[in-house]
C-alpha cells in the first residue's frame, strides 16, 4: 500500500509540474483536447501509429524551382513524422501517456535558448536521415536537447535540412486552404546554402561561388560553425519545427480525419511560375524572413506562401521594367508609403568588352522600416542590407542612415536607374562590415542595373495610408488645374486691358480715376 501510494503521489507531482510548464505557453487546453481524441479510451495512452500519423506529410506532386533536387528527399519526408515522435515524445511499448505527451510538447515547443532549439532541429534531421538509410556524419553525446554535437555536414545536408524546414512552414501556411492532398513547391535556396558554405569553410578554399554545383560540393562544414552561421543568419529556422508541431496538434482537434495532410489548391500554386518573374522569389523572400523576428517577417512570408490566387505581387510597389526607370517614376509609385520597404537591385558587373559569360550577375537589397523620404539628408531608423544572390548574407544596422556618407554612399543608384555603385564597407559606419557580392574588393564597383523592385510590407494599414495620400495629392493637382473665372476681375478693369490700350494709342488722353 505504501509503495503504491508513494508511486501514485510521484506520478501526480510529475503531472502537475509538466502541466504547469505547458500552461505558461497557453497550450494546455489544446493539448488536452488533442490527447483525448488521440488516446485509446481503454488504456488512456496514445498509440504510436496515431501520433506518427498526426505529423505525416503526403503530397501528390513535387514542384521544384531549384535546378536540381535530391532524389532521396521524398524518402526523407516519409520518415519525418516517426522521427519527430521518437525525438520528443520517446514512446514506450504501449504508447504515449499524458505526461509523456505534454513533456514531448515542452521539449519541442517550450521556451528555450536559440542553441537548444537548433540542437533539437538537428536531432530531428539526424533521426530522419538515419531512418531513411542515408549517410550522415553527426554524433550526439546524449539524448538531451542541450547535448554537445560533433561531426560535420555536407552542402547536400544543408539543402535537405533547409528544405525540411521549408516543407514544415509550407504545411503550416497552406493547411487551411484544402483538406485534399496537394502539391509541394520547393524553392531554389542555393543562395542560402552557399551562405552556409562560405561562412563555414576556410578562406582561400578555392570555391567559385559564381559557377558551381551546390548539391555536388564535397566541402565539410563543421557543425559548430554551422550552428554559429544559423544563429547569425537564419535565427528563425528552428521556429519552422515548433510551429509545425504546434499547428499539427492544434489542427487535429478540428480535423475530420486523423492525418490532415498539408495542402494547397492548384489555383494557389499557379503563382509558382509568376513568382520567378520577380527578383523576390520564394527562396529569397524566405531567406529574408528567417533573419527577422517581427511582424515584417509575417508580411514577407505571404510572398513565400500565398494563400489565395496569384497573391505574390500584391505587395509590389515598384518594378522598373513595369513602371519605367528613373527617379520620377520610382517616386510616384512609392511616395506616401509609411511602412517597411524592401528594395532589391539586380545588376551585372564585369568588363563590357568581354563576352557575356564573364559578366557576373548579383542582387543586393535594403530593408527600411519607415519608407522613403524626399530630402538631401540621411534619415530613417534601423534596417538591414542584404547580399541576396549568388550568396546570401545579412548586414544589420548599427546606426541611422542608409550607408556611408554624402557622396560616398555604401550603395548608390543614379537618377536614371541605369547604374549602381557599391563601395567597400570601410566608408560605412552604419551597417555591419561584409561584402555585398563575392570578390567585391576595396575599390568602388559600378555595375549596370538590370531590374529594381520595391516591396511594401507594412500591411493593409500602410497601403490605405498611401492610397489616402495619393487621393489627396490628386485632389490638390486637380484644384490647381481648374480656373475659376469668378475669382478674376472684369476685363475692363484689368491692368492687361490698360496696357493694350496704351500700346494701341499712346497719345490718347485718359482721365485718372480718383
UniProtKB/TrEMBL annotation:
Residues 290-458 form the TLDc domain. InterPro entries: TLDc_dom (IPR006571). PROSITE patterns: TLDC (PS51886). Pfam families: TLD. PANTHER family: NUCLEOLAR PROTEIN 7/ESTROGEN RECEPTOR COACTIVATOR-RELATED, TLD-DOMAIN CONTAINING NUCLEOLAR PROTEIN. This is TLDc domain-containing protein.
Amino acid at each position: 500500500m505504501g509503495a503504491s501510494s508513494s508511486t501514485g503521489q510521484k506520478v501526480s507531482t510529475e503531472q502537475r509540474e509538466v502541466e504547469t510548464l505547458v500552461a505558461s505557453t497557453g497550450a494546455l487546453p489544446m493539448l488536452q483536447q488533442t490527447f483525448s481524441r488521440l488516446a485509446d479510451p481503454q488504456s488512456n495512452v496514445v498509440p504510436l501509429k496515431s501520433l506518427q500519423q498526426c505529423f505525416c506529410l503526403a503530397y501528390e506532386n513535387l514542384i521544384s524551382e531549384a535546378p536540381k533536387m535530391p532524389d532521396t528527399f521524398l524518402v526523407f519526408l516519409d520518415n519525418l513524422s516517426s522521427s519527430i515522435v521518437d525525438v520528443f515524445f520517446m514512446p514506450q511499448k504501449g504508447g504515449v501517456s499524458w505526461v509523456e505527451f505534454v513533456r514531448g510538447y515542452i521539449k519541442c515547443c517550450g521556451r528555450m535558448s536559440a542553441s537548444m532549439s537548433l540542437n533539437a532541429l538537428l536531432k530531428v534531421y539526424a533521426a530522419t536521415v538515419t531512418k531513411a538509410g542515408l549517410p550522415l556524419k553527426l554524433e550526439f553525446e546524449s539524448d538531451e536537447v542541450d547535448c554537445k554535437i560533433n561531426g560535420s555536414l555536407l552542402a547536400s545536408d544543408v539543402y535537405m535540412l533547409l528544405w525540411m524546414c521549408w516543407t514544415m512552414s509550407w504545411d503550416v501556411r497552406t493547411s487551411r486552404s484544402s483538406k485534399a492532398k496537394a502539391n509541394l513547391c520547393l524553392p531554389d535556396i542555393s543562395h542560402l546554402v552557399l551562405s552556409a558554405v562560405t561562412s563555414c569553410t576556410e578562406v582561400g578554399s578555392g570555391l567559385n561561388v559564381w559557377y558551381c554545383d551546390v548539391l555536388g560540393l564535397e566541402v565539410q562544414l563543421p557543425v559548430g560553425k554551422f550552428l554559429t552561421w544559423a544563429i547569425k543568419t537564419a535565427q528563425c529556422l528552428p521556429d519552422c519545427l515548433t510551429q509545425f508541431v504546434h499547428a499539427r496538434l492544434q489542427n487535429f482537434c478540428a480535423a475530420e480525419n486523423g492525418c490532415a495532410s498539408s495542402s494547397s489548391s492548384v489555383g494557389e500554386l499557379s503563382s509558382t511560375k509568376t513568382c520567378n518573374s520577380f527578383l523576390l522569389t520564394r527562396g529569397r523572400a524566405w531567406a529574408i524572413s528567417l533573419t527577422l523576428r517581427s511582424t515584417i517577417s509575417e508580411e514577407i512570408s505571404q510572398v513565400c506562401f500565398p494563400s489565395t490566387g496569384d497573391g505574390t505581387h500584391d505587395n509590389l510597389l515598384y518594378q522598373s521594367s513595369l513602371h519605367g526607370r528613373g527617379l520620377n517614376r520610382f517616386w510616384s509609385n512609392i511616395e506616401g508609403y509609411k511602412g517597411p520597404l524592401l528594395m532589391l537591385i539586380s545588376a551585372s558587373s564585369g568588363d563590357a568588352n568581354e563576352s557575356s559569360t564573364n559578366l557576373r550577375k548579383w542582387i543586393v537589397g535594403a530593408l527600411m522600416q519607415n519608407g522613403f523620404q524626399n530630402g538631401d539628408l540621411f534619415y530613417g531608423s534601423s534596417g538591414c542590407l542584404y547580399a541576396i544572390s549568388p550568396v546570401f548574407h545579412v548586414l544589420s544596422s548599427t546606426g541611422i542612415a542608409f550607408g556611408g556618407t554624402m557622396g560616398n554612399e555604401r550603395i548608390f543608384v543614379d537618377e536614371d536607374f541605369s547604374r549602381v555603385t557599391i563601395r567597400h564597407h570601410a566608408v560605412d559606419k552604419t551597417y555591419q562590415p561584409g561584402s555585398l557580392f563575392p570578390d567585391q574588393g576595396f575599390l568602388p564597383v559600378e555595375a549596370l542595373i538590370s531590374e529594381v523592385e520595391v516591396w511594401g510590407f507594412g500591411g493593409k494599414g500602410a497601403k490605405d495610408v498611401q492610397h489616402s495620400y495619393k487621393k489627396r495629392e490628386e485632389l490638390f493637382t486637380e484644384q490647381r488645374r481648374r480656373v475659376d473665372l469668378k475669382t478674376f476681375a472684369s476685363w475692363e478693369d484689368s491692368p492687361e486691358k490698360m496696357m493694350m490700350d496704351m500700346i494701341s494709342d499712346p497719345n490718347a488722353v485718359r482721365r485718372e480715376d480718383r
